[in-house]
Every structure is written in structure tokens, then in C-alpha cells.
Amino acid sequence: MASSISLSIPLCPPSNSLSTSLSPSHKPPFLQKRTQLSGFPLRAQTLDFSGSFFEGAGFGSEDDPITPGPGFTATEPKEEPQCPPGLRQYETMAVLRPDMSEDERLSLTQKYEELLVAGGAMYVEVFNRGVIPLAYSIRKKNRAGESNTYLDGIYLLFTYFTKPESITILEDTLLADDNVIRSSTFKIRKRKY
Q1: Is the dihedral of CA 36, 38, 39, 44 positive or negative?
Q2: Domain map of the chain by residue range?
Q3: Residue 4: φ, ψ to 5°
Q4: Where do the record's region annotations for Disordered lie (predicted)?
Q5: CATH architecture of 88-187
Q6: Contact status, residue 185 vs residue 170, Cβ threshold 8 Å
């Protein structure tokens, strides 16, 4: 499909303030050219976009199905569970030491899941975000008094429904754990539109 664009735009003469302050011999070249072209119509070039990126023949052919790259998985949309009466929805983001093994991380995740369930939490979900560089270095002392500086960490996101009273137990346990660099808990509020 060929597209044809044709415009006829007369160029305006320069404003009086510039033309009166500068004589024709002292005008800059772009103003001299403009005064020479004033009154002539401007014609646009005809553009042909057939077979271009804009018609779907972009980076690949139509025969190749678009598949997400490695690390991306197709997820089906699922319904969020309704908040049970007396409970509130919370999210806890915990940043773990980056040098933890997979077994240590799994046992720590299971420990905090069990702690949440013991405190009355429901619908506990854990999302492992992986190792992510920190925005700034974090220095943390462990129980032995050794100080470590961390530049990245393993991010875990816990989402759950629980009673407000059980949050303090979780936060105190996360704060005392040497494997946890930082943690934050947020109450999720649904917007009323």
C-alpha cells in the first residue's frame, strides 16, 4: 500500500522586528534563504511504507511465533483471594545475603512461611525475585560482631493475609536473623474507584 502525502504550505516572511533591525546584506544565511523562498509552495515527498516495519514485517516474519525469552514464563491470570474477615493483606519484602546456597534459602523461606501460618496467616505466597543489585551498599553486623558490606541481595516477596498482631513477631524475627540484610512489611489497601 503506497501512501501519498502532498502539502502546500506557504512560508511566512520574517517578522518585522528582525527585518527592520537587519539590512539584507547583514542578515544571517538562514534568514536570507527564507526571504528568497517566501511565497513558494512546499511540496512533500511521496512515501511508500509497503513491506516495512510498520506493516508487520518488522524484525521477524509472520511464520515465526513470538516466544518470550529465557526466564520469562507465560502465566495465566488468576483471581486474588478475598480477604477473610478479621484479617488484612500484607506484603513483606526481605533481602537475603547473596552468598546463601539454594538449600539455605529454601529452608529460610520455609521457616518464615511456617512462622506466618503459625501466626494465623492465610494464602501465603512467596516470590523469589533472585539476586538483584542494591541501590546502595548495606553494612550489617552479625551476632558474632563481624561486619559485612553487601552490594546485592536475594529478594523474597511474601504476600499473605493475617492479623495485625502477628506482624510484630515476624518483623522481630526478620530483624534478629543474620541471613536477612533488610526487610519491610506493608499493609495493602485496595483502592475504591
Answers
A1: positive
A2: 88-187
A3: -120, 125
A4: 62-83
A5: 2-Layer Sandwich (3.30)
A6: yes
